[in-house]
Amino acid sequence: MNDQTGLLNRLTAVGYQPDEPAFRVTWADISAVLGEILQEQGIELQQIEDETLFELVDDAAEALNSGDILLWKTTIRERMLSHEEVFTDFNEPDTEPGEGILTEQYENATRLGDDEGYWIDGGASADFFDDF
Length: 132
Prior knowledge:
Blueprint: H1 3-13, H2 27-41, H3 50-66, H4 72-81, H5 84-87, H6 101-111, H7 115-118
């Protein structure tokens, strides 16, 4: 009898069933991860179409077959968040074409009259003649 067979026999003797999975991820586990992602992104479940939902869940299951199963939660999160077309539709920044995030921050600061908040150093580097 080889070592593997002997080890399996010993494990069976103490209650481990050879045909039972040692580790498994259920559809409930996958839906819990998707629920966390939707909550973090501020997306209501009703906003996701069935086709998109099924695509995300199927892709997560596929990721489990090709990824590190012990890091199943991270694997599923990364695969689901890689669907940028799903999540960017809900989280579009309020910018005009050709503008970046700094332009948006400047516009928000000037609209709120918080010019000091725009400057990283609280306005110390602003021009002496600026209106504050």
